[in-house]
Design brief:
The chain has 11 helices and 10 strands. With 304 residues, it is of the alpha+beta class. The chain has a 6-stranded mixed sheet, with no helix packed on it. Strands 6-7 form a two-stranded antiparallel ribbon. Strands 9-10 form a two-stranded antiparallel sheet.
Amino acid sequence: MIKTKKHEMNSEPDQWVIVAPDSAINVPKRTNKEPIFLSLRHPKTDNASLYLLSNEANEVFEVKAFNERYHSWFIGQSVQHDGRLLFLTLMDPVFLLLPYFSKFGKEGKFQPVEQVVVDEAFPGCIQLLKCSQTLQCLSHVTEKKEVGSQSFYRYNKDKTLTWLKKKVDNTVKALKNSNTCVGGAVKSSTFIRSKSTTDIHEEDYLRYAHGLVSEYISEDLSKDLLKYLQLPELSNPTELEPPSKKRKLSDNPVEAEEDYTKFNNDDHKKKPTKKMTPAQKALAKVDKTGMKTLSAFFSPKSKN
């Protein structure tokens, strides 16, 4: 479904067109809480990224954008100059909290979660702790101790790698169920819209899934996960990486994947030589000595 969302900035109202699941934007009658947009640190790049916390703080959504130049929306009787199409994708909030626990994990101490998830540049990160599933899911990447009524957490790298491997395994299943081409089959699928299972190996799926999961973890953790999956490093790793990893990283929202400028190079500008008709061949054999071209009769006369 498509919704418009108003935002106040510089005293001028703004809107966006958003494609989102009902659970992300619908506000139940029993509550006054509304979904909120949060600017948070991206777990891989450390750059500011936009996320949405659902009205009941049950789910976290990553905000992506499909953007084309010279694009706008007609909304009612107005024209929206921002022509981006935003869409929300559900994500595991543990990915967003993992860098904080990994950083404090070097001290090897158990600490309250409120002292770990602290970020002066992105104070909204504390809102992630309101998500009902966050504290339950922290057990996948941390050790927990309870003293009285208070809980203390410590980062555990072994548990984190086990958790990430499950993410990779689930991604592999999803790729197979959706008949997604990976590895060398990606190139062949550009010309032939079919999947040959004999050309795709389990390692191809693992590498592709590893690339997708690595979009949300640090480079060091991605390398550790590669070893944990018992996959050797490639001399040219971009060959089997998903399209999102081949794209140049940027602070801007995700744009259209297709590069239409590739059709502007010289190879595409060259046109094949046309075959001459019998009349054109006969005209080419005529002796044109002393004959004027047709354009000569229409050129301006020279002034004496």
